Amino acid sequence: MERNISRRAILKGGLIAGTLVPALGLLNKGRAASAIPPLDSKDPTANALGYVEDTTKVDNNANPTHKNDQRCDTCAQFKPSAGEARGACNIFPGKSVANAGWCKTWSKKS
Ligand code: SF4
């Protein structure tokens, strides 16, 4: 009996998570970047990925493949916000990143 309740609780939790996670992503899509809090470069994930607000400030010794044309606004993960200096990023949901920013997961927008 207890085993059934656990299984049910797990299924219920999975259904809720499966519904909420995409819904939270949709909330960001309609928001102007200025309405989304900026990503703090001291955030542990941002720090681990070497996020900076200005790609020209990247330490090229520590990131030898970095080039200054690698900016958030040329990255496949970036969602621009028209007329704004910031946009959303798939890697940092709920936070805005600078158009001129960069992190180690940069990949060229196709
Ligand atoms: S994944 Fe791309 S858009 Fe997001 S912070 Fe890194 S470089 Fe910028």
Descriptive overview:
The protein is an alpha+beta fold. The chain has a domain of 68 residues: High-Potential Iron-Sulfur Protein, Chain A (Irregular). The chain is built from 2 helices and 3 strands; from the N terminus they run ααβββ. Strand 2 and strand 3 form a beta hairpin. It starts with a helix and ends in a 12-residue tail after the last strand. The site of iron/sulfur cluster has 13 residues, from loops.
User: According to CATH, what is the topology of the domain at 31-98?
Assistant: High-Potential Iron-Sulfur Protein, Chain A
**Form type:** globular
CATH-defined architecture of the domain at 31-98: Irregular
CATH class of the domain at 31-98: Few Secondary Structures
Question: Are any ligands bound, and if so which?
Answer: iron/sulfur cluster
**Biggest sheet descriptor:** 3 strands, antiparallel
The largest beta-sheet arranges its strands as: 1-2-3
Structure summary, number of beta strands: 3
Q: For the record, what is the CATH homologous superfamily label of the domain at 31-98?
A: High potential iron-sulphur protein
Helix content: 25-40%
Low-confidence stretches: 13-24
One letter per element, helices H and strands E, the order comes to HHEEE
* Rg value: 18 Å
Strand content: 5-15%
Core attributes:
High-Potential Iron-Sulfur Protein, Chain A; 110 residues; single chain; globular; alpha+beta; three-stranded antiparallel β-sheet; binds iron/sulfur cluster
Offer a quick outline of the entry.
The chain has 110 residues and is of the alpha+beta class. The chain contains 2 helices and 3 strands.
